[in-house]
Design goal:
Strand content: 15-25%
Low-confidence stretches: none
Bound molecules: 3,4-dihydroxyphenylalanine
Order of helices and strands: HHHHHEEHEHEEHEEEHEHH
Number of strands: 9
Strand order of the largest sheet: 1-4-5-9-8-7-6
Largest sheet: 7 strands, mixed
Structural class: alpha+beta
Helix content: 40-55%
Shape: elongated
Length: about 350
């Protein structure tokens, strides 16, 4: 009996070795363990075996049956897994010759304009700086000449945090850090997201973007400010842009101005974008107040500076002809996709 068992085991091992398809395992199972299988046949011999050997032979055959079953199962599982892996791999094959119709995303129009403006200023020797969105009260107000209890603080409806810090109400909040970081001559721009507790309407947002610039050197004048702004505008709008200054008020500049540009869409003749006035209000600016320079560790007797606070949302709206600031934060793809900033 042992010989028969051994030869069946040998046969099974050879067969399993040669099998390369999972389905063939099932065929082997039938051949060995099925109704008229080789092992099933052996069980029939039991009745011919001596009574005292019956139990032992029965056990031997049972353990042969279990062993074969396990061997076949193991091979079948292995082959099935292998077949599955092959299927997955072939499904993952990428046909690089297939044309793509993938919908790729695009930059937000405000990001596009920001990058374009940054490029122009960088080409004129400016560094691009970053600022945090949570600021100290000192940086946001005191350092830019808006002391505690000064009514000028009311100009900006501030989100105060429990720890006494603020959500940056304007990019001017980074001025002090930048003045301290660099020695004059300084040419820096710093774009950033700002927050104010505004009632939202078509021209007011509680979350908006500015791009601030400072120039500090010996004998800086309003002429320098106009020069840099005109250079930037002519590159962005791809034509010479006329600007004008009107008096304004900001605690951190003295004198302060509002800069307007001759409407680039109608060249000043009057259109819906400039509301028929021929001019578009662009940004506040001015000569940096001596106290602001002093707070930044710069001697106002030696150096002077100018600054501007360009509204990035405003600039985007002018460039793309968007008339409601709320659209910019809406995430409305239908709307945003319409604006290819081809300036
Ligand atoms: N920080 C001002 C605001 O958000 C804008 C501003 C005005 C910035 C004059 C300047 C400036 O740099 O010179 O209201």
């Amino acid at each position: 009996m042992q010989d028969k068992i051994d030869s069946i085991l040998k046969y099974a091992l050879e067969k399993l070795d040669a099998i390369s398809l999972a389905d063939d395992c099932q065929k082997l199972r039938v051949e060995l363990l099925g109704k008229s299988g080789k092992v099933t046949e052996l069980f029939r011999y039991i009745k011919e075996v001596d009574a005292d050997q019956k139990q032992k032979v029965g056990q031997m055959l049972n353990s042969l049956k279990t062993k074969l079953d396990e061997m076949i199962n193991a091979k079948e599982t292995f082959l099935r897994q292998e077949e599955l892996n092959k299927q997955i791999l072939s499904a993952k094959k990428i046909d690089i010759t297939l044309p793509t119709n993938a919908k790729t995303g695009s930059l937000h129009p405000r990001t596009i304009i920001q990058k374009q403006i940054e490029d122009v200023f960088v080409s004129m020797g400016f560094v691009v700086e970053d600022g945090s969105e949570i600021e100290t009260e000192y940086n946001n107000f005191t350092a830019v000449n808006v002391p505690e209890n000064h009514p000028a603080r009311d100009m900006q409806d501030t989100f105060w945090l429990d720890n006494g810090q603020v959500l940056k109400t304007h990019t001017s909040a980074s001025q002090n850090r930048i003045l301290k970081k660099y020695n004059p001559p300084i040419r820096a721009i710093f774009p950033g997201r700002c927050f104010r507790n505004e009632n939202i309407d078509a021209s007011h947002e509680n979350t908006f973007f500015q791009l601030e610039g400072v120039i500090v050197d010996k004998d800086v004048s309003v002429g320098n400010l106009i020069y840099f702004m005109k250079e930037m505008l002519s590159k962005i709008f791809k034509k010479e842009i006329e600007v004008r200054l009107r008096p304004g008020f900001f605690p951190f500049t003295e004198p302060s101005f509002e800069m307007d540009i001759r409407c680039p869409f109608c060249d000043g003749k009057g259109c819906s974008i400039c509301k028929n006035s021929g001019w578009i209000e662009l940004c506040p600016c001015g000569i940096i107040h001596p106290q602001v320079l002093r707070n930044g560790g710069i001697d106002p007797e030696k150096y002077s500076g100018c600054a501007f606070g360009l509204g990035l949302d405003r600039m985007t709206m002018i460039s793309a002809g968007i008339d409601d600031i709320r659209e910019l934060n809406s995430g409305n793809l239908k709307l945003l996709k319409q604006f290819k900033l081809d300036l």
